[in-house]
C-alpha cells in the first residue's frame, strides 16, 4: 500500500512534465519530417545556434503553424481548438463527420514550405505512429518519421532508421493522371526502370508484415487528408 501510494504521488507530481515531454517529442518529429532538424540542431531559425542543441519549442513556434480540417477537407475556424492537442487516434474512434484532422505547416517568411500530417496504423506487434510531410505541390514527399512503435529490433524496428526513412524523400503520391497513388515498400530493392518506381521504396528484409502495415497506414493517412490536399491543389 505504501509503495502504491508513493507511485501514485510520483505519477501525479510528474504528470505535467510527462505531458511536456510528449509535446516536445511530437514537435521534434514534426520538425524532423519537414526537414527543420538535422542531428537535433534547428535549421531555419535565425535566433537559434545551428551548431547547438535545438530549442524545440522555440524552433517550432517560429516555423510551424497549425490548423484543423474536417473529413471533407474544410478548414475548421475555431480559435479555441489547439491542433497540437488533438489525437488522431481519438479522432478515428469518432463518427467520420465529427472528426477533426490536424495539419502542420512549415513557413518561411510567411510562405508555405511544407505540409505535415500525422500517420497511424498497425504493424506486426504494435501500433505505429509517425508524421508524413509533403512539398508545397502536395504531391512530393519531403520527409517521414516514425517515433513510437513496438516492432522487433533489427527487423521491423528499422522503420525508424534514416536509411529507410530517406527512401521516401522525393517519392510521389499521385500518378500521371492525378489520382492518389500511395507510396509502398516492395520486397527487396526498387527496380529503378519500373514505371512505378517513383511510388515505391526499398523494403526491409525479414519485416514484410511491418512494411505492409506501413503501406496501409500511409495509404489511410493520405486518403483522410486527400480532400483537403486536392482542394488546396485546385487553388493554385
General description of the model:
Strand 5 and strand 6 form a beta hairpin. The longest helix has 32 residues. It contains five helices and ten strands; from the N terminus they run H-E-E-H-E-E-H-E-E-E-E-H-E-E-H. The protein is of the alpha+beta class.
Strand and helix map with partners:
Layout lengths: L1 H32 L3 E2 L2 E2 L13 H8 E6 L5 E2 L11 H4 L9 E8 L2 E12 L4 E8 L6 E8 L13 H4 L18 E3 L13 E3 L5 H27 L2
Parallel strand pairs: 9-10
Antiparallel strand pairs: 1-2, 3-4, 3-5, 5-6, 6-7, 7-8
Q: Quick gist of this model?
A:
This protein is α+β, with helices and mostly antiparallel strands and 236 residues long. Helix content is 32%, strand content 23%.
Features:
alpha+beta; six-stranded antiparallel sheet; globular; 236 residues; two-stranded antiparallel sheet; single chain
